[in-house]
């Protein structure tokens, strides 16, 4: 049975706006995440191995958001709301709960811009609201001459291969369904891009896979792309490093020594790898004319 909790606050002001996501505020309708990505940064003892077991609906979210946005709008504190930073706003449960949809209605009412990040095609249901927000929202003053759009929709991928996705994102909608949702988003004229966070070393960041991904995304007419490499934390049984290394041992045993070596002492891939990764991404973004920014160009 789904757990329900009462949140103290639902809209969180960020300390600093991220240069990619442009988040002034974050909003998480759910606590924990049933998509259960092995590499998820929210993993760890708080949610356990199966994050779905800890999934909770924030039952007072709509009322709280309305109160918080009323105050922010009164003070003209318009800013981009990222939905979501620590869960997915379109978990399977959202199909019946419709909580994210109600929150978007509140956001539209108060005319705040929004950046939706998801691994699900359920967002197609709410394209009407995203279109309306894109038309009616008010950007923060310092972004008004840098952005044309006010609703941004980013689909997140670590791979576009359904079989690989099933290993590393076992609860999420298949990558092929996300690609189809991008087609529908573009057909509706939504400003839409892709977050490749994280690409999986030697699995989805090979030259062949990268070319396939960039070709695919270019053909889908996305507007931006945010690539990043893998970060893993912790040695506890519930931590992302343990879970990813276990999956590598099972499905990619040839890669295990390399993963073990790289993540033995650090949570990130080595500096030389990250430098080469960054250079490669810049080249691909240039070659495929896919900017890695939301800003107008
Ligand atoms: S969809 Fe996002 S929040 Fe949910 S498990 Fe995956 S990475 Fe974590």
UniProtKB/TrEMBL annotation:
The keyword DNA repair does not apply. CDD domains: Radical_SAM (cd01335). Residues 28-205 form the Radical SAM core domain. Keywords: Iron, Iron-sulfur, Metal-binding. The keyword Nucleotidyltransferase does not apply. Coiled coil: none annotated. This is Radical SAM core domain-containing protein. It comes from Sphingobacterium faecale.
């Amino acid at each position: 049975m789904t757990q329900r909790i009462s949140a103290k606050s639902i809209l969180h002001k960020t300390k600093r706006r991220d240069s990619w996501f442009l988040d002034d505020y974050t909003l998480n309708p759910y606590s924990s995440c049933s998509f259960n990505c092995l590499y998820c940064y929210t993993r760890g003892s708080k949610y356990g191995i199966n994050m779905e077991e800890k999934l909770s609906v924030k039952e007072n979210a709509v009322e709280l958001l309305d109160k918080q946005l009323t105050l922010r709008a009164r003070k003209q504190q318009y800013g981009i709301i990222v939905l979501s930073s620590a869960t997915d706003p379109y978990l399977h449960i959202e199909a019946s709960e419709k909580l994210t949809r109600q929150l978007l209605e509140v956001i539209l009412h108060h005319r705040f811009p929004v950046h939706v990040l998801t691994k699900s095609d359920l967002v197609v249901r709410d394209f009407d609201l995203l279109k309306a927000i894109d038309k009616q929202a008010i950007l923060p003053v310092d972004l008004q001459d840098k952005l044309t759009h006010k609703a941004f929709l980013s689909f997140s991928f670590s791979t576009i291969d359904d079989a690989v996705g099933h290993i590393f994102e076992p609860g999420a909608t298949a990558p092929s369904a996300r690609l189809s949702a991008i087609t529908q988003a573009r057909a509706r004229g939504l400003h839409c891009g892709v977050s490749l966070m994280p690409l999986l070393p030697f699995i989805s960041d090979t030259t062949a896979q990268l070319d396939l991904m960039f070709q695919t995304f270019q053909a889908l007419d996305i507007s931006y792309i945010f690539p990043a490499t893998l970060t893993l934390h912790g040695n506890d049984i519930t931590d992302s490093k343990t879970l990813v290394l276990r999956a590598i041992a099972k499905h990619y045993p040839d890669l295990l020594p390399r993963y073990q070596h790289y993540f033995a002492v650090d949570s990130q891939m080595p500096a030389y790898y990250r430098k080469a990764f960054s250079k490669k991404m810049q080249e691909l973004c240039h070659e495929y004319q896919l900017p890695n920014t939301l800003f107008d160009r």
